[in-house]
Amino acid sequence: MGKDKLVLAGREYNSRLLIGTGKYKDFEETKKAVEVSGAEIVTVAVRRVNITDDKEENLLDYVDPKKYTILPNTAGCFTADDAIRTCRLAREAGGWDMVKLEVLGDTKTLFPDIPATIEAARVLVKEGFIVMAYTSDDPITAKKLEDIGCAAVMPLGAPIGSGLGIRNPYNIKIILEDAKVPILVDAGVGTASDAAIAMELGCDGVLMNTGIAAARDAILMASAMKKAVEAGREAYLAGRMPMKLYATASSPIEGIIE
Amino acid sequence: MPVNGISTSRSAFLIYGGLLADKEIQRGKMELKINGNIKEVEEGITISDLLEEMKTPAIGIAVELNREIIPRSSHESTVLKDGDELEIVKMVGGG
Question: Are A46 and B92 in contact (CB < 8 Å)?
């Protein structure tokens, strides 16, 4: 497994697990979860500085940008313009040119607004951003995002924060079939087996946040997810046995005592 | 009371001080709209001054002035004006 790297826009990563930094109890827990997960890429959100509290702690004091690749997201953006503006701010803030683009359709489902996502992706790619696009599990959209020049396409497994797992593995499989950029399942992963399933399907990686942060023991779940992604990847590379309806004995028939 | 003291001396300047004192009085505060909130600051401060006053994080912040991003390298040379609208953002936890 030593040479099996995730390659994103020419940059190599050892870990195929990307994790979000939201919803943890505190920054200490965030830090610990990131460490234990083995993730090298972590998502962050871009938000207003609190102007009335100058003692507010800074996430980046806990998640060191020198140690991790910071992947700013456009969470909370419902228009292409807002998403583009957010990415530009993120690039100014830290020189981060790799972004997780998400343009949301409504607050109830947080499903992506596909036309707006495509519109924003076009502009961002033109401006030199390395765009990782959150999208639905629709193969046609995934292809369009790839054609536009997105560095990675990230179909949802289920709604953000739902923990419902990979609802449509067949669509993910179709997306994977002729994808030429990395495909990562983003959103929906609720427990280790969900992550393993995504990887066994052949996904290049998994991005999750709530699946870890909302576990009773977030740190332990971070560890579980690390193993699940690795196990799923190895199983995919190993090539699973064919499924059969009837039994095949594992022990030899010959030499059975009489 | 010190407040009264200042007020009295300012009035005195206004009456007797002429042009110089006049300028002194006009130099004062201005209002900025920062992240949707009105904030009163010293007139003529730069973005760098403002960030220092607000104790914003040293890394990972970006500033938009009237919808235009001001690169970090220009923070020191950008003087703010009354009524300017700023967005100052940082990185927070997110998925």
Answer: yes
